[in-house]
Amino acid sequence: MGKGLVSETQSELKKVIWPSGKDVVNGTAAVIAISAIVGACVFVFDFASAELVKFIMNNFAR
To answer: pTM of this prediction?
Structure first.
């Protein structure tokens, strides 16, 4: 049972089309860039929300 599993796994891994190094670098760069953009958007929204709450509390709270 163990040898069959190993040989089947090796056989399947030979069929895999692995990405080139350039593809990996491009994909990694895209993930980092998109993560930075999303992080910046979250930061701006969080900061603006906090400032809005402060403004409301300072001007309209009793």
So the answer is: 0.69
Residue 10 within a domain: no
Residue 3: inside a domain, yes or no?
A: no
29-56 in b/e burial notation, b at 16+ Cβ within 10 A?
A: eeeeeeeeeeeeeeeeeeeeeeeeeeee
Q: 27, 19 in Cβ contact below 8 A?
A: yes
Q: Is residue 5 part of a domain?
A: no
Strand, helix or coil for residue 62:
coil
* 11-49: pLDDT as tens digits: 999 999 999 999 999 999 999 999 999 999 999 999 999
Give one DSSP letter per residue of 32-43, joined into a string: HHHHHHHHHHHH
